[in-house]
Amino acid sequence: MILVCGEALIDLFLVSTDSGPVLEVAMGGSPFNLALGLARLETPAGFFGGVSNDYFGVMLIEALANEGVDTSLVKRSVRPTPLVLVSPDSQGNPSYTFYAHEAAAEGIELADVSQPLPPSVDAIALGSYLLAVEPAGTALLALAEREAHRRVIAIDCNLRPAMVGPIHAWRQHIERFARCASIIKLSDEDFAGGWSDGASPDDQAASWLKHGVRLVLMTHGPRGATAWHSSGRVTAPAMPVEVVDSVGAGDSFQAALLARLAQNGLLSPRALSTLDGRSIADAMRYANLAAGMTCRRRGANLPRRAEIEQCLSRGEGT
Questions:
Q1: Helices in 77-164 by DSSP H: which ranges?
Q2: Under a CB-based contact definition with an 8 Å cutoff, are residues 253 and 290 in contact?
Q3: pTM, to two decimals
Q4: pLDDT tens digits, the chain, 318 residues: what are they?
Q5: Pairing of strands 225-229, 50-52
Q6: Between the chain's N and C termini, which has fewer beta carbons within 10 Å?
Q7: Rounded to whole angstroms, how far apart are CA atoms 290 and 246?
Q8: Residue 44, CA distances (Å) to 27, 113, 223, 227 in order
Q9: Residue 6's closest CA among 136, 98, 111, 94?
Q10: Domain map of the chain by residue range?
Q11: What are the C-alpha distances in Å from 303 to residues 23, 31, 68, 186, 291?
C-alpha cells in the first residue's frame, strides 16, 4: 500500500456563464487527488491527514472510501474543511486562493505519527503546502525521517506561494524532506518559484542525487518531463491534448508514476537505486499519458487504469 499524507479540501471553481460567474464545487487537495488516482490505477492506497467532521469532510471521506482508499488512519477534526477558489486563465492554467487557515488539514501533530505504520505500507507519499505549515510540517517530517530506511518516501514539492510564507523558508523545509526522500517530483513552475537564485535543474537534481535521492523528476506541461537518476538523464514527451484545464495534472502524473513503478515491482529503495533508462522512460510515458488525460477534463478527474491501457494499446504517448 502507498500511504498518502496531506490535505483533503474542497475546490471552488469560478466558471463564467451567460448569466455571470458561478461556483462549481469539487473535491480536491493534491494528496487527496493522489490517493484517489492511485486507487483508480488499481494500486492499493491509504490516506493519512486531518479531515473535518463537517458536511464537506464527510463527503471527502466517503469519496475516498468509495474508490477503495483505506481511510483508517484519517484524523477526524472539529476544525472546518479547507476551501480553495480555483480560477483558470484562458489557457486553462489555474490560480488558487486558499481559505485554509486553522482548518482541519493543518491539525496533524507529532502525537498523530507516533505509532508504527501497518506492515502493508510499502511507500509514503508527501507533498503540497502542509510540508511547510506547522504543526503538520514537523509531524510529517518526523514520519518521513523515521520511515526512510524502511520504505520509499516520495515527495511532490507542489509549491503554493500563498500558503507557505517566505520562499526561502519553504525551500529549507523541502531540503529537509529531501534528505530522507527516495523520489522527488516537481514542476518547472515549482522550480522557478522556489529556486529562482540561478540554480539550474541539472545542478539541483545532481545535488539531491548526491545526498541519497534515487529519482528526481520535473514536469514541463506540454513539453513533457525530465528525470534524473544515477544511470542518466531521461526525457519523455507529453501526450498531445486539447487542454480543458490542467487542475490535477501534476497529481495524475505522480499517481501514475508511482503506480507504474509498483506494477513493475520497482517501488522499493533498493529497486529504485538500480533503475535503468528503459524502466524510467516507461514509467514517465505512463505518467504523461495520465496527466494528458486529466487535462482533457474539467477539474482533477484522474483516469482509471483501463483508460490508460487503452491509450497504450493504441500506441498513444510513443
A1: 136-147, 161-164
A2: yes
A3: 0.92
A4: 999 999 999 988 877 788 888 888 889 999 999 999 999 999 999 999 999 999 999 999 999 999 999 999 999 999 999 998 877 666 666 677 888 888 999 999 999 999 999 999 999 999 988 999 999 999 999 999 999 999 999 999 988 887 888 888 899 999 999 999 999 999 999 999 988 777 899 999 999 999 999 999 999 988 999 999 999 999 999 888 888 777 789 999 999 999 999 999 999 999 999 999 999 999 999 999 999 998 888 777 888 999 998 888 887 765
A5: unpaired
A6: C
A7: 12
A8: 20, 21, 30, 25
A9: 136
A10: 2-313
A11: 24, 16, 15, 20, 9
Q: Which three cell numbers stand for residue 218?
A: 520535473
Cell readout for 24 is 462549481
CATH of domain 2-313: 3.40.1190.20
Given the C-alpha cell 455571470, which residue does it identify? Answer: 20
3-state secondary structure 93-113: CEEEEEECCCCHHHHCCHHHH
Written as nine digits, the cell of 145 is 525521517
> How many residues appear in the chain?
318
Using the structure block, give the residue that is written with the C-alpha cell 494499446.
313
Which set of grid coordinates corresponds to residue 11? Answer: 475546490
Nearest to 227 by CA among 240, 213, 241: 213
Where do we find the cell 545535488?
207
Of 252, 303, 276, nearest to 311 by C-alpha is: 303
